[in-house]
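Hello Y.,

Per our agreement to keep a running log of every chain we model this quarter, I'm adding this entry. I've kept the format consistent with earlier entries: sequence first, then predicted structure.
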Amino acid sequence: MSKQKVVVLGAGYAGLKVVKQLQKKNLDLDIILVNKNNYHYESTQLHEVAAGTEPARKICFDVETVADKDKVMFIQDTVTKINREEQTVVLEKNDPIKYDYLVVALGFVSETFGIPGVDEFSYPLVNITTAEIAKSHLDETLRNYKESKDKNDLSIVVCGAGFTSIEYLGEITNRIPKMAAEFGFPESDVKITCIEAMPKLLPMFSEKLSKYGIDILKKRGVDFKVGTPIKEIKKGIVVYEENGELKEIKANTIIWTTGVKGSPVIGESGFEERRGRVMVEPDLTVKEYPNIYMIGDVSAVMDKDSGRPFPTTAQIALKQGEYVADNIENRVLDKPITPFEFKSLGTVASIGNNSGIGNVMGKEVKGYIGSIMKKSIINKSLLTVGNTKTLLKKGRFDYYR
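Predicted structure for the entry above:
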């Protein structure tokens, strides 16, 4: 009798955690991992790459440092479609893969909300490639000012004021003084604007913490425009609405961080989804397809306390990965299945390298202590999804003021 086949799509936090846990169990299974890159990257640190404060290699490690070649077959390819009825996965370059159990952890893409010009004239931060492109553009534009004397070369607009936006702003405001000295532009002439459609900044934190973080960025020169939805992006121009009037800001660097949605493969494969996310069953499977698990950025897990889906964070993705590996083991061994449960341990946002704000285990932290907590969370993630060697090579141990 042939072994049952478990196919895992995606080597992000959720998918790689499933593989890591499953291979430890030594079950009589064929495990296949499919990912378009041969590396895993810490998506929570993309803002550092985009701002130029950390190189891409710092937040990446090879998939095969975690996936045991003797237990896991790794296929580097792009998933184009999932055929639920045939139980196959269609790939861009390789033959379709048959599965008995399928774990879908395909990650996210940028959400444009249908706003004209976003794809053409702004820079999203969704993977290593886009982050490096954003960094190269920022450097080139600021460097160009010495010759161009175009004030728009020194104008940066960040679209959105969510987690990634605030952390990106923290990094670039830390780096601007060094860039001014290196590229020869007047630091005082740099204009950084953050535009947010919602009426409140950082609503996931208390008003006190939110004000603390925003005040730091304001002191560094960031101008926040709140309750001002973006209507269009043109070449070098952001059009937004303020008090019922359309206004414009000119900038030669426009960073798009308004939000993300799950992989388009989900909708294209016929799953019932909203913004690329599928509302899953209590055991993280898809309704009417008990052998398909949907986790990470492509899943929506209901929080019974709030009555809304949990935010898609690395924290919940890692817990989902661990749960799915245990769930598959229980099904293979014909053991009882328990529903997925999740309780957030807290949230921390960095405001540059040596400051941060957060709520950890019910306690608020800020400033230097906040930055230590953020780096500790990064290190825990590297150890959880990777291993000790990964932590020692890629960990954040720069605990200085």
